Amino acid sequence: MTLKSAKDTKKEIMLNYNRDPQDWHVMVGKDNYGHTDTLITHSNELWILKEEIINPYKSLGFGIKKNITANLSNSGLKTFGYRPLPTDLSKNILEDKINTEMFKNIITKTLKNDPLPINNIKSEIAIQGPILHSPKPLQNFPDFTKQVDYELKQELDNLLSSKYPHLRSMYR
After folding, report:
1. Residue 157 class from Cβ within 10 Å (0-12 exposed, 13-18 middle, 19+ buried)?
2. Would you list the domain boundaries of the chain?
3. Banded pLDDT at 88 (limits 50, 70, 90)
4. pLDDT tens string 9-43
5. Is the pTM of this model over 0.90?
């Protein structure tokens, strides 16, 4: 178990996703300190990312990969992925020619399709998701996540204190 930057962890995840886009699950939430926690599973692999949003265009954080025994493939949850929309539907959405009910039907129908590697999507619009939101996503996984969470938080706090000390104010 080696800590990596969140940026490097995300690159690793995308490489794995593009090799095998089936059976991915993503869950996000905030910890008690306002950091974003992201849990990503694929088969028996779990990635945990802890990040601080620096500004709307930049986040800073760390990630870790762990092998787990649980596999969410048979959980009944819709799997995460990128799914293209047909061109005619994309045009209707872009030109605002659909109502809420039609949009719900498009999403439902699209989520029934298998996710594709990003480089195989040729349509103008693709749907990304679903992403599950949880107030405390780490609580949904085994006890080892408490130690991992602690390590990620410590490293993130150290990095933020050195690079962005103004974010570590007494008001946090």
Report:
1. middle
2. 1-80+130-172, 85-129
3. confident
4. 999 999 999 999 999 999 999 988 889 999 999 98
5. no
